[in-house]
Design goal:
With 373 residues, this protein is of the alpha/beta class. The chain has helices at residues 6-27, 34-47, 58-68, 86-93, 112-125, 145-155, 207-217, 239-249, 252-270, 297-306, 336-344, 356-367; strands at 51-55, 75-79, 97-100, 129-134, 158-162, 170-171, 174-175, 182-186, 200-204, 283-284, 290-293, 345-348. It has twelve helices and twelve strands. The longest helix has 22 residues, at 6-27. Bound molecules: pyridoxal-5'-phosphate (PLP).
């Protein structure tokens, strides 16, 4: 059994995929070819934003807006400790300071009440200047944006939505990617919409910021390639990856429906045995991951492994306890919810081509897991 089955998906889209790739091979515009613009247009319609800027990875989709917003030393950017390293890494790369905010124990996303407290304590402390917040839509479920946006507005700071896992999800009728001032997503192969390499995209309605980010994506270029207005990066999405994504977009809405159905089937089989994911009213998850909470994780994982069922732990170490961030001075118990979640979380196989028989096998493997914790 596969944790994420990309082979079956490839077979499902084979014809369209080959046509798309062939077309790139015949026009030979491997960098910024017509597929890149077509993809940006299609994604703008899908997410419901004015500007889409595709880029080289999910990490760069976070880095580019932070560069455009002029983040640097002395600035505080608030984020969650329960995420992939990239979310905080980009803040530090620019010389700014990540300030962590504990999560909600049910949604695993940034707790807006904690955010309020942490912003206030940074202001009281006076060493750092609050500049922005990067909530993460973990496992595909959007963070709780209404209170976050309202707090951000009150303090005059920006919101960058880390939608790397949530493309296709939504919050109060709005699509993930459109929920902050800027949205950032990843097309890493394992994400809900993945390409066949690295890729990402940035979403915004802010015209001025969009123009800056378009410039930063290609070395800070001005009106032509050899005029440089600012420092930028080599942050383009390959034309071939855009072609792959255009083929995958054709089946993406169906795949999202399949993920919903699979998550509900999991819930039914598992809700009496372990803690299943909580999706609050008004939220729709893109189900990048289906993650359960159990005190007996090691036993469950070992039992599934014996049956040939792969699982994963996202994430075993919260970011405030990562060696790279030791200089920030955080210690154990600083973020009790994130730490407790990291000890109990377990992600099960999740992809649109998972069969009912496979789900049954997984549920059975969890039900029959016994032994010491
Ligand atoms: C995958 C991921 C990223 C980084 O995306 P890459 O395309 O791998 O650079 C950032 N944030 C989160 C939450 C992710 O899951």
């Amino acid at each position: 059994m596969e944790f994420i089955n990309l082979k079956t998906q490839q077979q499902a889209i084979q014809t369209g995929l080959e046509q798309r790739i062939k077309s790139v091979l015949s026009h030979c515009q491997y960098i910024m070819g017509p597929e890149v613009e077509e993809l940006e247009k299609r994604l703008a319609e899908f997410v419901g934003v004015r500007h889409v800027i595709t880029c080289s990875s999910g990490t760069d989709s976070l880095l580019i807006p932070l560069m455009a917003l002029g983040i640097g030393p002395g600035d505080a950017v608030f984020t969650t400790p329960f995420t992939f390293i990239a979310t905080a890494e980009v803040i530090v790369l620019l010389g700014a300071t990540p300030v962590f905010v504990d999560i909600n124990p049910h949604t695993f996303n940034m707790d807006p009440e904690r955010l309020d407290e942490v912003i206030k304590s940074v202001l009281t402390n006076g060493k750092l200047k609050p500049k922005g917040v990067i909530p993460v839509d973990l496992f595909g479920l959007p963070a709780d944006y209404d209170p976050i946006i309202s707090l951000a507005g009150h303090h005059g700071i920006f919101v960058i939505e880390d939608a790397a896992q949530s493309l296709g999800g939504s919050y109060q009728g709005r699509r993930a990617g459109s929920l902050g001032h800027v949205g950032a997503t990843s097309f890493f192969p394992a994400k809900p919409l993945g390409c066949y390499g690295d890729g990402g995209a940035i979403f915004t309605d802010d015209e001025e910021l969009a123009q800056k980010m378009i410039s930063i994506r290609i070395h800070g270029k001005g009106s032509h390639k050899y005029e440089t207005l600012r420092l930028g990066i080599n942050g383009r999405l390959d034309t071939l990856q855009a072609a792959v994504l255009l083929a995958k977009l054709e089946v993406f809405p169906q795949e999202l429906k399949a993920r919903q159905r699979i998550a509900m089937t999991y819930n039914k089989g598992l809700e009496s045995i372990v803690e299943v994911p909580v999706i609050p009213d008004g939220f729709i998850s893109a189900w990048a991951q289906y993650s359960i909470l159990t005190e007996r994780r090691a036993v469950v994982q070992a039992n599934l492994h014996k049956r040939g069922i792969p699982t994963a732990i996202y994430y075993p170490t919260p970011l405030h306890l990562q060696p790279v961030f030791a200089y920030l001075g955080y210690k154990e118990k600083d973020f009790p919810v994130a730490e407790a979640t990291a000890k109990r979380i377990l992600s099960l196989p999740m992809h649109p081509y998972l069969t009912d028989a496979e789900i049954e096998e997984i549920v059975e493997g969890i039900r029959t897991s016994s032994g010491p914790c």
